[in-house]
Amino acid sequence: MFLVEVMRGGEMTKEITSLQNPKLKDAIKLKERSAREESGLFIIEGYREIKRAVDAGIHLQTLFFCPELFLGVNEPDLLKQITAAGSELISCSERVFTKLSYRDRPDGLVAIAIQMKYQLRDLIARLADKKTPFLVIAESIEKPGNLGSILRSADAAGADGVIVCDRCTDIYNPNVVRASVGTLFTLPVVEASSAETLIWLRSKKIKVVAATPSAQEEFTDANLQGPIAIVVGTEQIGLSELWMKAADKQVRIPMQGVADSLNVATAATLLLYEVLRQRKAPLHASTFLR
Amino acid sequence: MFLVEVMRGGEMTKEITSLQNPKLKDAIKLKERSAREESGLFIIEGYREIKRAVDAGIHLQTLFFCPELFLGVNEPDLLKQITAAGSELISCSERVFTKLSYRDRPDGLVAIAIQMKYQLRDLIARLADKKTPFLVIAESIEKPGNLGSILRSADAAGADGVIVCDRCTDIYNPNVVRASVGTLFTLPVVEASSAETLIWLRSKKIKVVAATPSAQEEFTDANLQGPIAIVVGTEQIGLSELWMKAADKQVRIPMQGVADSLNVATAATLLLYEVLRQRKAPLHASTFLR
Fold it and tell me: 10-residue block means of pLDDT along chain B (290 residues)?
């Protein structure tokens, strides 16, 4: 009933059929970083991602939807939830929606959301009740898909948060949102400089473990228990001198074949799950990094 | 000197400046699967990938190159090596080359190669001297990037080969080649049906370990020693009933956050490195799967 009313373009909703509509044009502009930074807004596409954002309390400014493209049966409930939260709903023709979507197979839902902009101090609240903080530092990752995958793995391995240092891609890039499958909204993700992050980690007594091919110790032999921040660097050149020097421990992932590296998100996942494994079944009687 | 001669379009090389050139058009067609299947050829782009192919004995039919786009200093040596192997060299203008390239930042090298077409029986020779075979089965993977990443991780973790069952994407897709960073050429990669693969694994006494979220046992608790084939399934629905039933053991990757799955290539990597870890430092005194 609700959906029918929405689709009719009743009181509660607007309808767009023209590609020249200014709201549509503004939304499309958010695919560009400059427009995201200027407006403080970003795009979330897809049922799963939007649902996770709304459930996590992210405020949506606008929801564009196209019922002809809906894939499931839960969309009307989500539309209700979003309407109740005070967001604007805009119904689109398929032609208009396709212009806005960045997916191969759009599912009829694109939201414009307000950027969260967490700071390092916001992480403190989250970490307050954690005896052994578990963080991921992603330094200057270039590809949005890699950064999103790191977030997805951080969520899966039970990390408490991710700090994106000296960013190359911004965390609000649509492909970060997509590759994170919405974990961007449930995991505290902070953008900060490497310098301030290092000072902050030191003040919290969180040890820094850097992944680098030049390390002696393999990651599964290293003691990764205790308060820890796993640091991974750019796809092309790895970690900066700053992080390499600051690391309390350097570890490497063994490479048995012809290739000399793994994808950065894959490497991060191996390290994060090794932390999880050691937390579940401690191998080392010693405390961390005596 | 050699490069200068090649660039001049001397005896040893041809030159293309027209987008209508039939050789160029045939090469571009190889981006489509139908053309790859009809011709038995495929495209390899990039210095690193082509070098790995040539070193691995893959026969190149043609090399298209554009010296203006070269990034390094080793390209002339590679051109010499390819010429010596009897392949045709074709120099291209930047405009022509860009049409052929599928990369954002082309490095001036695209090869047309003859498909390897390994069979299960070819794996036997490779496994003959292995006391404990270590294989990866990738069932019906849809995204070329994921399949390529699985190959890259299989190489890194020291697997003996990969069997691509009931393929969705073919292993000669340019994005498989790219994501594999050339490990497609150094690792035995076989395409086969699930049914014949299962019979073959049984005959070799190789145990099948399936990764599935519904398993009881976590992958790091399971004994993954002994002759093993790690099986992963499609991005959307996971492993087929056939493989789930055939598995000697089912294991799951713990998920601590809101997301209910990892990327299939990431999941495969975790399992492969767990096999490697257990081979290096056996935790279980027992033999595999009593």
Answer: 51 78 94 96 96 95 96 94 94 94 93 93 82 94 95 97 92 95 94 95 95 93 96 88 95 94 94 95 48
Residues A246 and A223 sit within 8 Å (Cβ to Cβ): no
pLDDT (mean) for A139-159: 95
Q: Give the per-residue pLDDT at B106.
A: 94
CA distance B152 to B126: 18
The token pair at A54 is: 């709304």
Q: Classify B105 as helix, strand or coil.
A: coil
Q: Which superfamily, per CATH, for A120-280?
A: SPOUT methyltransferase, trefoil knot domain (3.40.1280.10)
Nearest to B138, CA basis, from B192, B95, B98, B91: B192
B260 φ, ψ (degrees, to nearest 5): -105, 5
What percent of chain A has a predicted confidence (pLDDT) above 70? 92
> Confidence class of residue A131 from pLDDT cuts 50, 70 and 90?
confident
Structure tokens at B197: 């693969």
| B111 CB-contact burial (10 Å; exposed 0-12 / middle 13-18 / buried 19+) | buried
Q: Which residues of B touch A276 (CB under 8 A)?
A: 254, 256
Question: Does the reported pTM lie above 0.80?
Answer: yes
Cβ distance A181 to B254 less than 8 Å, yes or no, reads no
How confident is the model at residue B6, as a pLDDT? 55
Residue A234 is predicted with a pLDDT of 86
Find the distance separating the first CA and the last CA of chain A, reported in whole Å.
Answer: 65
Q: What is the ipTM for the molecules in this complex?
A: 0.88
Chain A CA closest to residue B269:
A266
Q: Which pairing describes strands B109-114 and B60-65: parallel, antiparallel, or unpaired?
A: antiparallel
Most B CBs within 10 Å, among A58, A143, A256, A283, to test the B interface: A256
Contact B156 A253 (CB under 8 A): yes
Q: Higher confidence at residue A6 or residue B257?
A: B257
> Tokens 């989250």, residue?
A126
Q: What is the CATH number of domain B2-114?
A: 3.30.1330.30
Contact A263 B152 (CB under 8 A): yes
Interface test with B, best of A107, A258, A276 (most B CBs within 10 A): A258
User: How is the beta sheet containing A60-65 ordered, strand by strand?
Assistant: A13-16, A88-92, A60-65, A109-114, A41-45
The domain spans of chain B are 2-114, 120-280
